[in-house]
Amino acid sequence: MLRHEQAVETANKSINQAKEEVSLNHWRLTYHVSSPAYWVNDPNGFSFYNGEYHLFYQHHPFSAEWGPMHWGHAKSKDLTSWEHLPVALAPSEEYDKDGCFSGSAIEKDGKLYLMYTGHKWTGDNHDTDLEQVQCLAVSEDGVNFEKLSNNPVITNAPVGDIHPNHIRDPKVWKHGEYYYCVIGNKTKDEVGQVLIYRSLDLLEWEFLNIAAKGEGNFGFMWECPDIFHLDGHDVLMMSPQGMEPENYLYHNLHQSGYVLGQLDYESGKLGHGSFYLLDYGFDFYAPQSTIDDQGRRVMVAWMAMWESEMPEQEYNWAGAMTLPRQLIIEDGQIISKPLPEVEKLRNDLTQYEDVLLEGKQELEGVLGDCLELDVTIDAKDASQFGLKLRVSEEQDEETVVSYDRAEGFLTLDRNKSGKGLDGIRKAPVELKDNQLQLRIFMDKSSIEIFVNGGEKVMTSRIYPRESSTGIEFFAEGAVSITSLRKWSLVNSTEKTR
Ligand code: FRU
């Protein structure tokens, strides 16, 4: 057996041994992708291949902590029900001996290629003692992957102000006759930037340019870049590490967002505008996108943050993916929307219209921990209003979503959410015709709030007790719940191979 096959088999064994016990944990997510057991970070290789969506992820299959990175793998026909597949990549060669780091996928001649970063430690200092090269693996069946003998396909960093060691996370796409890839990097004195390369065959790569580079408060390293064309713009999506908090912005350890511009494919330079966040919650990092057979640009991200407390680690798992979101551009900004396919999970509709609300109120049938809530609230002349989720009977647990009209901010407060980290996050939100529309997805230990049709999104993990399932509306002054629809979400089809 090849070394790589052996390493994959060892990883699969480890997962299989742990998964049954892990599945019993009440925080396990039911319609979000996570590994059957152990650690997960960035989405990788998100692609549409042979009529199915493939989603890989950074994965440590031997513990619930980050470790030598493998690629976990799941696939889906509808981005809603996922089937777990065997581990796709495991460290096995000299050039990736300490990890198969993040990367992407592309179809060529009917085969699925993965382009990833081979990672090696060269000493004890994890900031400086590392070597990163770019590699390829290929599959004919979309399940079993073989590393190419040409690996690594990109080795030495180009000359110039390019840090030679931190060079990772290739995202590959085709434009005209060339394949292009964008790679995360920083300058020698710690300014985030991305590099662009091109190739005719995926094997021989030519460095084109530094496509974009940070200025001002824009992080010391840009990870997980992604470039794609959307509604007349070239989008660079990336994850800058270490931006300083500014006002209500950038309070997570690292950020993920985008700039809109135009990429000059000859020079490899991207002219672009300002940076915007893709999500205003606590747990959203390293988003990656793909395009499907309907021409939809779909994005998924890691629903966690580096160095966060992850209470599920106690139960031998950690981390998950966000809901896949369709990206569109409206008025010069990206809007993120849940895909219509998620509606397949809907069960047991509870509905209300024109409910006048003053003070506090619960609504019969509106409760739970795995649900979709679509609510439009007319703010009337209230100064503040919102709702509390995952409320316990003892009132010691609650996750609060509140709108402050004078401030113009929606706030997500997880100070009393249960275990794990606390704090608040804010997103600037304007009422539309004096109304606020929220579409909220909850899944056992996660919450995703799509505001006003996806103009803003707030994503977070929360770790309440299983019995904390109450929902309570509140208003200072009077508001009217113009419409409310709540469904339990039931996923009956998750399978493991
Ligand atoms: C981003 C990241 C990537 C790297 C991977 C390692 O979260 O740090 O830059 O490839 O995670 O797991």
Shape: globular
Overall pLDDT metric: 97
Class derived from helix and strand content: mainly beta
- Low-confidence stretches are none
Fraction of residues in H or I helices: under 10%
Bound small molecules, deduplicated: beta-D-fructofuranose
Distance between the amino and carboxyl termini? 21 Å
Main sheet characteristics: 10 strands, antiparallel
**Number of DSSP-assigned strands:** 33
CATH architecture of the largest domain: 5 Propeller
What's the CATH topology name of the largest domain? Tachylectin-2, Chain A
At the first level of CATH, the class of the largest domain is Mainly Beta
User: Radius of gyration, rounded?
Assistant: 22 Å
Helix and strand layout, with pairings?
Elements: H1 3-23, E1 38-49, E2 52-60, E3 70-76, E4 83-89, E5 100-108, E6 111-121, E7 130-139, E8 146-147, E9 168-175, E10 178-186, E11 192-199, E12 206-213, E13 221-230, E14 233-241, E15 257-264, E16 269-272, E17 276-277, E18 285-291, E19 297-302, E20 317-318, E21 325-330, E22 333-338, E23 346-361, E24 370-378, E25 384-391, E26 398-404, E27 409-416, E28 424-428, E29 435-443, E30 446-451, E31 456-461, E32 470-489, E33 495-496
Parallel strand pairs: 1-20, 4-33
Antiparallel strand pairs: 1-2, 2-3, 3-4, 5-6, 6-7, 7-8, 9-10, 10-11, 11-12, 13-14, 14-15, 15-16, 15-17, 18-19, 19-21, 21-22, 23-32, 24-29, 24-32, 25-26, 25-32, 26-27, 27-28, 29-30, 30-31
The structure holds beta-D-fructofuranose.
